[in-house]
Amino acid sequence: MGIWKDLTNPTSFARQHDTAFEFPAPTEPPANPSSSLVPVNKIASVIGPGVVIEGQIDGRGDMRICGRIKGDIRVQGNLVIDAGARILGAIEAEDITLGGEVEGNVVAAGQVELLDTGRLIGDLKAKFLSAALGSRLRGKVEFGLAETESKSAEGNQPSCQNGAQAHSASTGE
After folding, report:
1. Is the N end or the C end of the chain the one with fewer CB atoms within 10 Å?
2. What is the pLDDT of residues 105-150, one digit of tens each?
3. Dist CA 63 CA 97 (whole Å)
4. Overall average pLDDT of the 50-76 stretch
5. Could you say which DSSP state residue 38 is in?
6. By the 8 A CB rule, do 63 and 44 touch?
7. Domain ranges across the chain
8. How distant, in Å, are the alpha carbons of 4, 11, 20 from that of 17?
9. How far is residue 80 from each of residues 2, 29, 102, measured CA to CA in Å?
10. What CA–CA distance (Å, rounded) separates 171 from 120?
11. Where are the beta strands (DSSP E) in 109-153?
12. All residues at 6 or more sequence positions from 155 whose CB lies less than 8 Å from its CB, including other chains
């Protein structure tokens, strides 16, 4: 008497184990992949509040961070940093909503939105910036200028009179 079942004939194994579960028939993929409801490059990734990551994150699609990350983040999509999240590293994304704490430089191709719970220690560069009452930022800020405009503006800075030193409005120094 053998303890092994005859697996060469798959129907013999199925008959021995009567199951009421039936697998659904496979569906055909859409003829045009771009017509799917959720674009492949916009699938959201979530890093939960109990997750701690050390290392670089690169990806496509939208991302939401609720946990802690020590490392640089580069996302080809939108990035949401929830209140309570903490990031130690540089960030690059399309649009960034900052509700947590970030220590590192932030670069957005589009908009950066600082929520009232948001705190940034580092330089910020974006096309558009909105900051809620109560948000905090320490660093240099550049927004609203195209790359060529920002370089020409650096060369045309006004000189201070009476030997007074210029103060950075973003750092308070």
Report:
1. N
2. 999 999 999 999 999 999 999 999 999 999 999 999 999 876 655 5
3. 11
4. 94
5. S
6. yes
7. 41-150
8. 14, 10, 10
9. 59, 31, 12
10. 11
11. 111-114, 119-121, 124-126, 128-131, 136-138, 141-143
12. none
